[in-house]
Design brief:
Layout: E1 13-17, H1 34-45, E2 50-52, H2 81-86, H3 92-98, H4 108-129, H5 134-140, H6 142-157, H7 173-199, E3 203-208, H8 217-221, E4 236-240, E5 250-255, H9 259-264, H10 268-280, E6 283-286, E7 294-299, E8 309-312, H11 316-326, E9 332-334, H12 342-351, E10 355-358, H13 359-362, E11 377-380, H14 389-396, H15 402-411, E12 416-420, H16 421-424, H17 454-466
C-alpha cells in the first residue's frame, strides 16, 4: 500500500473539489491525460494542497459515481485516448474520431457506447502485447479484478441487463482479459497523475460510498454478504429519513449489508475495499458514516424512505478489525452530516476521524458561530449535492454572498476547508453537479476551456496565504 496520511498531519490547508469527469478537454469528458496534468499544476499554483474527487468507480444507473458497478474497479471512461495513442494502442484516425468539441456538459448517451468500445479495443491490443507490470497487477488484485472482469464481460454479452436477468453465463477469456487490461491502463494513467500531484505538494482525498448498487460485481459475486432473498431481490433497502434535501427522505434503493456475515468473515471484503481505496488516494472520505453506528432500513418496495427504521451498525469493532487487517492507521474523513446523534459523534471521536461541516447548512442556523468549529473538521462551502454557493446565495436570499462565505471558511479553525471548483470560479446554479432526488441532468458538469486562468490562480493564492493556509 502506498503512503497515506491523516488530515491532522497537514493542518491549516485548503482543498479543491473537482471530479475528473468535469475537467475541460477534447474527449467529451474529462480524462487522466493532459487536462488532468494542467489542472493539477493550476491548483498547486493557486495554493491548494488537497484535491478531492468523487468515487472513481464504473458508473451504472444515472451515471452516478454513488451507484457503482463495482467497489474496486475504476471507470474506463477516464482513460485518456490521447495517452493510449501515445502508447501505440490507438491509431491517429481512432483518436481523431474520439474528439468532441469542448462543451459545458458530458453528453452521456452519446459518449458511453462510443468510448467504452474504443477503450476496450485498445485494451485488447494491449493484452496481446502483455506490457511490463500487467501480470504483477493481476496477481496483486486478483481478489477483485477477476470477478469484475467476468461481471463486465457477462453484462456486455447480456446487452447491459442487470445480473438478475442474465440468460448467458459462459466464460469469455478474451473479453475478460481485456476488461482486466482496462484496469491496468487506468492504474498506469492514475499513477502518473498521483505522482505529478505529489511533486506539486498536493494530496488526494478520495470518496467511498458506504453502499454499492444491486446491479454490481460486488453483489453478484458475494450475494451472501447482502440481505437478499433467493432470487437476488433485496429484503430491505438503504436510504435516509427526511433531511435537508427531501421532506420524504432519500430512497437510495441500495441493498443493505448482512453485517453478521461480514463479521463472521472478519470484515475481509471491507478490508479489501478500503485497502484498494487507500492505494488510489492518500485519505478517503466515507460517505454516510453514521450508518456504521446505525442505519436507516426501508422496506423493499416502499415508495419513499419516510417509513423506515433505524438498525444498529457494526460500530467501532468494524474499524478496529479493518485497521488490524490492513496494518495501518485508517486515514478517514467521516461524512457525518444529517441526523447526527451523540452516539455517532462518540464513535467518530473515539476513532479520531475528522468530521464534516457544510457552510450552506450551518449558516442557515442563527446560532451558528464559525469560531466554534473544531480543528478536526473538514469544512465545505458546499458539496457535489449542493447548489453552487453563488446560486444558493441568490435563491435562498441568505444574506451571505460568495466572497463572505469563502472568507468564513478560510478564516475558520478547521484544519482543512474545501471549495468546489464552482465556488472557486464563482459559477451559478447552472453549474451544479447533482440535485438529490432527481435522475436527469446530474453528474454532467464540465469546466469551460480556459476557466482555470492565471489571474484566478493568483487571486486564490493570495486568499489562501493570507488565511495562513499556504
Amino acid at each position: 500500500m502506498k503512503s497515506n496520511e491523516p488530515l491532522a498531519a497537514c493542518a491549516r490547508k485548503a482543498g479543491i473539489l473537482l471530479h475528473p469527469t468535469s475537467l475541460a478537454g477534447e474527449w467529451g469528458i474529462g480524462t487522466l491525460g493532459a487536462e488532468c496534468a494542467e489542472f493539477q499544476d493550476w491548483a498547486a499554483e493557486a495554493g491548494f494542497t488537497w484535491w478531492q474527487i468523487l468515487p472513481l468507480y464504473p458508473t451504472g444507473y444515472g451515471n452516478s459515481p454513488y451507484q457503482p458497478l463495482c467497489s474496486f474497479a475504476c471507470n474506463p471512461l477516464l482513460i485518456s485516448p490521447g495517452e493510449l495513442h501515445q502508447d501505440g494502442l490507438l491509431t491517429r484516425e481512432e483518436t481523431d474520431d474520439a474528439r468532441h468539441p469542448s462543451g459545458s456538459r458530458v453528453v452521456w448517451e452519446k459518449l458511453l457506447p462510443e468510448r467504452h468500445g474504443l477503450v476496450l479495443r485498445a485494451a485488447s491490443r494491449a493484452l496481446a502485447l502483455n506490457p511490463p507490470g500487467f501480470d504483477d497487477f493481476c496477481e496483486k488484485n486478483t481478489g477483485w479484478l477477476k470477478p469484475w472482469a467476468r461481471y463486465a464481460a457477462l453484462k456486455g454479452r447480456n446487452g447491459g441487463a442487470p445480473w438478475t436477468a442474465w440468460s448467458e453465463h459462459g466464460e469469455d477469456p478474451g473479453r475478460e482479459g481485456a476488461h482486466m487490461m482496462e484496469q491496468f491502463l487506468f492504474q498506469t494513467q492514475w499513477n502518473r497523475c498521483r505522482e505529478r500531484g505529489e511533486k506539486n505538494g498536493m494530496r488526494l482525498l478520495g470518496d467511498l460510498p458506504i453502499y454499492t448498487a444491486l446491479d454490481s460485481a460486488d453483489v453478484w459475486w458475494n450475494p451472501g454478504l447482502f440481505r437478499l432473498d433467493g432470487s437476488g431481490t433485496p429484503l430491505a433497502v438503504a436510504g435516509v429519513p427526511p433531511d435537508y434535501f427531501s421532506p420524504t427522505g432519500q430512497l437510495w434503493g441500495n441493498p443493505l449489508y448482512d453485517w453478521e456475515a461480514h463479521r463472521a468473515e472478519g470484515y475481509r471484503w471491507w478490508s479489501l475495499r478500503l485497502g484498494r481505496a487507500l492505494e488510489l488516494c492518500h485519505t478517503v472520505r466515507i460517505d454516510h458514516f453514521r450508518a456504521f453506528c446505525d442505519y436507516w432500513e426501508v422496506p423493499a418496495g416502499a415508495p419513499t424512505a419516510r417509513d423506515g427504521a433505524w438498525r444498529p451498525g457494526p460500530g467501532k469493532a468494524f474499524f478496529d478489525s479493518v485497521a488490524g487487517n490492513l496494518g495501518v492507521r485508517l486515514p478517514i474523513v467521516a461524512e457525518d452530516l444529517g441526523i447526527i446523534t451523540p452516539d455517532v459523534r462518540k464513535l467518530r471521536e473515539e476513532l479520531g476521524f475528522p468530521g464534516m461541516l457544510v457552510l450552506q447548512f450551518a449558516l442557515s442556523d442563527p446560532c451558528f458561530d464559525p469560531s466554534d468549529v473544531t480543528p478536526d473538521t473538514v469544512l465545505y462551502t458546499g458539496t457535489h449535492d449542493n447548489d453552487t454557493t453563488a446560486g444558493w446565495s441568490r435563491s435562498e436570499g441568505s444574506g451571505y454572498d460568495l466572497d463572505r462565505v469563502v472568507n468564513i471558511a478560510l478564516s475558520s479553525p478547521a484544519d482543512l476547508c474545501v471549495f468546489p471548483v464552482q465556488d472557486v470560479l464563482g459559477l451559478g446554479s447552472d453549474a451544479r453537479m447533482n440535485t438529490p432526488g432527481t435522475d436527469r441532468g446530474n453528474w454532467s458538469f464540465r469546466l469551460a476551456p480556459g476557466a482555470l486562468c492565471a489571474k484566478t490562480a493568483a487571486r486564490w493564492r493570495r486568499r489562501i496565504s493570507n488565511a495562513g493556509r499556504a
